[in-house]
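hey all, quick one before standup. I had two proteins in the batch that finished overnight and I want to keep them in one place so we stop losing track of which output belongs to which input. First protein below, input sequence then structure tokens straight from the run.
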Amino acid sequence: MNSSPNLIYPWLQLYWDQLSRYLQQDRLPSALMLVGGEGLGLSHLAKSFANRSLCISPNEAAQACGVCESCVLFNAGNYPDFFHLEPEEGKTSIKIDAIRQLSASLALSAQYTKTRVVIIDPADAMLHQASNSLLKTLEEPSENTCLILIAHKPSKIPVTIRSRCQLVTVKNIDLLQAQSWLRELGCPSSEQYLNLASGLPLLAYDLWKKEALDIRAALFKDFLALIAGRLDPLLFAEKCISLKGMPVLKWMMSWLTDAIKYTHSSSGLELINTDLVAGLKVLVGKLHLKSIHNLLDGLVRLSALESSQVNQQLMLEEFAIQCYSLTVK
């Protein structure tokens, strides 16, 4: 993995160059928003930019030198004018108290150099009151201070905040670069894992380390058995729940999406799960097209509730029972 803040992931080099120009032109923004999927490396990009912004002696490549006093403090996690806000351990949201504490710190003078950098990661984890509190800080920005907001779901961030940030949207990355990076780390099925991770390289890396291709193949086999009426739906739901850390709902949605595509064209072109074509053919033979659409709609609703307080096992059991009952007799 790329742990050094001085090393930029290859698919992010274009965006790093864009950020570097702010410093080269001596116009550090008061607020930046990095927008992109979780698993692209936006946190690393933000931290690298923060390190470079605070470095006293950047190198010829316009990156942080790594050896000056600022870099030593930064890499040790002790730089007094760098603030990194994220949800508390075991929590999923950033509360108003954290934003208030940040605002109080920014009201004071910088302690080390004139520049201060704040990373809020992810900004879409802020609760409503926290967002309102941050808005006041954005409306009256502190001098020589840059706030970097990382947004995986920008629609969850109030437009009043988004409009006060310079947006850097990471999209359409070079997948060949990502595949090469994965292969250099030892991943033999880089293209398949990237496909499995919806083109998110760091997620692909995590899935590879967990041998997710084998796990997905086994779950797909169970899904076909469920559809055929050969597997107890409650057992299937229990297995899905046991696969913590795996994007089970996304996998099932991709299978059904591919099944719909396959009914319109059996060529296998533009399928997500190109290695499961034989099983997809079986799936299409077992279910009516309308049933596939109904199941997909159910998964979309279930996915929308994934981070809520709804009983996930109960919802999965209901979905599995629906699958079990739809087999073409």
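OK second protein, same deal, sequence then tokens:
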Amino acid sequence: MSLKTCNFMILYNRLLDNYNCLFEIIKKIIQDSVLLEKEIFDCNKLKDQGKKEYYKKNSAWSNGIIGFAKSMAPAVSIATESLNGFVQGETSIEEVTVSLNNMVALVTQFVMSCKTKADPQSKPLASIRRGAREIYNIAHSNVDKIKALQMPSSEPPIDISSLTKTKKVAFENDLKIRILELERDLEREREKLFKLRSNTYH
């Protein structure tokens, strides 16, 4: 095994450890959310019928919790698949980054929902917020590690200094065209994302 391959495997194993840590924190957040819900109901002295009315009356809070519960499992699955795909050369670093950012966004939204009804001094809420910060830090650490795993481009660098003025101008025009094409593609993808979010969250 070459030194490069050995370093790759070391980084990959560290990345796996981080992912496992992420999943344990998410599990803890879910457990804390159950305690927080009980605390909120106990504070308001709610029984079964009262709980149903409370959910209806506070739909933004309840929808935030339900949305988190429904979305987190698929988000974790996608994050795991994207990591495995990246290691096998089938997934880009951008896909892995997006999957991690989605997990962070879901947890952040969940914390905001919890804060709307929880006592600011609530211990379960404090634990949830700590978990959210840990997820944020680990996710960004994972992105840095993934960048370290990324293989360098196989395309040889272009020696611009060796080009004639005419070729430099032509090369510049090619780059401008490529940038415009990428910007157009980016705008199309943004429109798709906007439509998807509108359909999913509204």
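Flagging for whoever picks this up: The domain at 3-151 is CATH 1.20.1410.10 (I/LWEQ domain). Residues 3-43 form the longest helix (41 residues).
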